[in-house]
Amino acid sequence: MASSREFVEYVMEQLRDAGPVTYKKMFGEYGLFCGRKFFGVVCDDTLFIKITEAGRTVCPGLSEEPPYEGARNYFLVEEIDDGELLTRLVTATCEALPDPEPKTRRRRRSAE
After folding, report:
1. Are 91 and 19 in contact (CB under 8 A)?
2. What are the DSSP E strand ranges found in 16-62?
3. 105: how many CB neighbours lie within 10 A of its CB?
4. pTM score, two decimals?
5. d(CA 96, CA 88)
């Protein structure tokens, strides 16, 4: 079952103070980004956040499950109504994640 846009918009509203958080439709579900950092997904109207030690400190005891078959474990965030706690979790997670590699431009082949 695909996630509803309404659920994703609600998550975005809860994260309004977490920085430049955006979402992108990916493979029928939604990827979550803070700036250029990928930090989580919404699958089947459920929020999953990448696992970091900083996240464990903010929210100890979160369940860890894969968001879809074949994926690595993420934090399963079932309580999304506490925007302040969710913001602290996402902020700590994003600070702990490495900056993404710069995109390299492909060189065009010259016509021969």
Report:
1. yes
2. 21-26, 29-34, 37-43, 46-49
3. 6
4. 0.88
5. 12
